[in-house]
Design brief:
It is a single-pass type II membrane protein. 51% of the residues lie in helices and 5% in strands. With 165 residues, it is mostly helical. The model has no long low-confidence stretch (mean pLDDT 81). The protein is globular and about 45 Å long. The protein has one domain. The termini are far apart.
Length: 165
């Protein structure tokens, strides 16, 4: 939808008719990741100034939805999957399989464009990290995190997430 497209345009800057026309002219892909894994990655990348994972989680919970970083805000609040009809939802942990399918559907040569992804190693590593980090949290923090990400957990199949247990 070239007439309205600019590099830094946000959907909220357009009216409903323009938004519908724009979204209808694109293939919409949403990449989703377990919210607890997103928290771990953010903490490990040093985006929080907390000395421990538990104190980092408390900062996230204290900041809430309106004062948080896009690195840990619930996906539902960022991507609006109830309002935008995505053509594809790609789950982190299944990237190699799903990206190959997506590229083939787009008519692109999947094999030559994909980096070597080792999904099983990534899944094992995050499972181990999740166990370690989750054990640092208090029962109250676990409950609050599950509540904070309740809409993500309801919208996407994160069945093995520690937050859905």
């Amino acid at each position: 939808y070239r007439q309205l497209h600019t590099e830094e345009a946000q959907l909220s800057k357009f009216n409903q008719t323009e938004i519908k026309a724009m979204l209808g002219s694109y293939t919409k892909v949403l990449f989703v990741r377990d919210p607890f894994h997103r928290l771990i990655a953010t903490f490990l990348q040093g985006m929080g100034i907390s000395p421990s994972f538990s104190s980092f989680v408390q900062e996230v919970l204290d900041g809430g939805m309106h004062h948080g970083s896009v690195a840990w805000k619930p996906l539902v609040s960022l991507c609006r999957p109830c309002l935008i009809q995505y053509d594809y939802v790609v789950m982190f942990g299944f990237l190699r399989q799903e990206l190959g399918h997506l590229l083939r559907r787009a008519g692109l040569p999947a094999g030559s464009l994909l980096p070597e992804l080792t999904d099983s190693q990534v899944q094992w590593t995050y499972r181990w990290l999740s166990e370690q980090m989750f054990s640092e949290l208090s029962a109250q923090q676990k409950k609050q995190l599950s509540h904070f990400y309740r809409w993500d957990l309801a919208a996407f199949p994160f069945s093995s997430s520690f937050l859905s247990e």
